[in-house]
C-alpha cells in the first residue's frame, strides 16, 4: 500500500486545483518558508478524517478553506482527494485503488466519499484503522510534535500501540455499542 496522489482544491493556500503524484518509497517536499509544505501534510490528515482544528494549525475547521490572498478572492469550499494504491489488499476493500475525498463548505458540513460513493467519517476511519493511518495520526509527526510523542505517558503510549496494532477500531466499536 502506498499513497499515489493527493489533490487539493481550495484547501488552505492551495486555491488553484493542485495534484501531487507520489511513487513508492520516500517523498520529500521542499520549498521556502510559508510556501505550503505543512499545508500538504495537513491536507493528508484532513482527508483521512482529522477532526481537530488545532491539529490542523487553525482555530476553527473553516480555517482550512482558502481565505483569499492579494488578487484572489476566498473560496466557499475546501476539497481534498487522496488516492491510495491497494494492490496488496491491506485496506479491507475490494479495490486495487482507493480514493477518499472530503469536502467542507463554508456554511459548515463535511462530506466524505470512498471511490466516489458518499461515505461517513466512520467509514473512512474504519477503512484506515488497521493501517496505522487515520484518526489519531501518530503516523504523522508534525513540526514540533516529536517532543510530545517522546514525552507520552504510559497510557498514551498504549494508545499508540493499540492504534498501530489495529485494536483501536474494536475498542471504538465496543464504546459505541455500550453507549446504545
Ligand atoms: P515552513 O517552512 O515555515 O514550515 P511551510 O512551507 O510549511 O513553511 P505552511 O505552513 O504550509 O508553510 O503554509 C503557510 C501559508 O499558508 C501561509 O502563507 C498562510 O497564509 C497560508 N494559509 C494557511 N491557511 C490558509 C487559508 N485558509 N487561506 C489562505 N492561505 C492560507
Ligand atoms: Mg512547515
Secondary structure blueprint with pairings:
Elements: E1 2-9, E2 18-21, H1 37-47, E3 77-85, E4 97-105, E5 110-114, E6 117-119, H2 121-128, H3 146-150, H4 154-165, H5 168-179
Antiparallel strand pairs: 1-2, 1-3, 3-4, 4-5, 5-6
Subcellular location: Cytoplasm
Family: Belongs to the SMC family.
Binding site for ATP: 32-39
What does this structure look like?
The protein is globular, with a radius of gyration of 17 Å. Helices cover 27% and strands 21% of the residues. It has one domain (2-135): 3-Layer(aba) Sandwich (Rossmann fold). The protein has helices at 37-47, 121-128, 146-150, 154-165, 168-179, and strands spanning 2-9, 18-21, 77-85, 97-105, 110-114, 117-119. A six-stranded antiparallel sheet has the order 2-1-3-4-5-6. The chain is built from five helices and six strands, in the order ββαββββαααα. With 180 residues, the protein is an alpha+beta fold. The site of adenosine-5'-triphosphate has 15 residues, from helix 1. Homodimer.
In terms of quaternary structure, what is this?
A: single chain
The CATH topology is what? Rossmann fold
Sheet with the most strands, sense and barrel status:
6 strands, antiparallel
Pattern of helices and strands: EEHEEEEHHHH
Average predicted local confidence, pLDDT: 89
The structure class reads alpha+beta
Q: What is the number of domains?
A: 1
| CATH H-tier superfamily | P-loop containing nucleotide triphosphate hydrolases
CATH arch. level architecture:
3-Layer(aba) Sandwich
DSSP, total strands: 6
CATH top level label: Alpha Beta
The small-molecule ligands in this entry are: adenosine-5'-triphosphate, magnesium ion
Gap from first CA to last CA: 35 Å
Number of helices, where a helix is a run of at least 4 consecutive DSSP H or I residues: 5
Shape: globular
- Contiguous uncertain segments of 5+ residues: none
The strand order across the widest sheet is 2-1-3-4-5-6
Q: Cα-atom Rg, whole angstroms?
A: 17 Å
Subcellular location: Cytoplasm
Subunit structure: Homodimer.
Organism: Scrofimicrobium canadense
Binding site for ATP: 32-39
Amino acid at each position: 500500500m502506498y499513497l499515489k496522489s493527493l489533490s487539493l482544491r481550495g484547501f488552505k493556500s492551495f486555491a488553484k486545483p493542485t495534484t501531487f503524484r507520489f511513487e513508492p518509497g520516500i517523498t520529500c517536499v521542499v520549498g521556502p518558508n510559508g510556501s505550503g509544505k505543512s499545508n500538504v501534510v495537513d491536507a493528508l490528515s484532513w482527508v483521512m478524517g482529522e477532526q481537530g482544528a488545532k491539529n490542523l494549525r487553525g482555530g476553527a475547521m473553516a480555517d482550512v478553506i482558502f481565505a483569499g490572498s492579494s488578487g484572489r478572492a476566498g473560496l466557499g469550499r475546501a476539497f481534498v482527494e487522496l488516492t491510495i494504491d491497494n494492490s496488496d489488499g491491506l485496506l479491507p476493500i475490494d479495490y486495487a485503488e482507493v480514493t477518499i475525498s472530503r469536502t467542507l463548505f463554508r456554511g459548515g458540513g463535511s462530506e466524505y466519499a470512498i471511490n466516489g460513493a458518499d461515505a461517513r467519517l466512520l467509514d473512512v476511519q474504519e477503512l484506515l484503522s488497521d493501517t496505522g493511518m487515520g484518526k489519531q495520526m501518530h503516523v504523522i509527526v508534525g513540526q514540533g510534535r516529536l517532543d510530545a510523542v517522546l514525552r507520552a505517558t504510559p497510557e498514551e503510549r498504549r494508545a499508540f500501540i493499540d492504534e498501530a496494532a489495529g485494536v483501536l477500531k474494536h475498542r471504538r466499536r465496543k464504546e459505541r455499542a455500550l453507549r446504545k
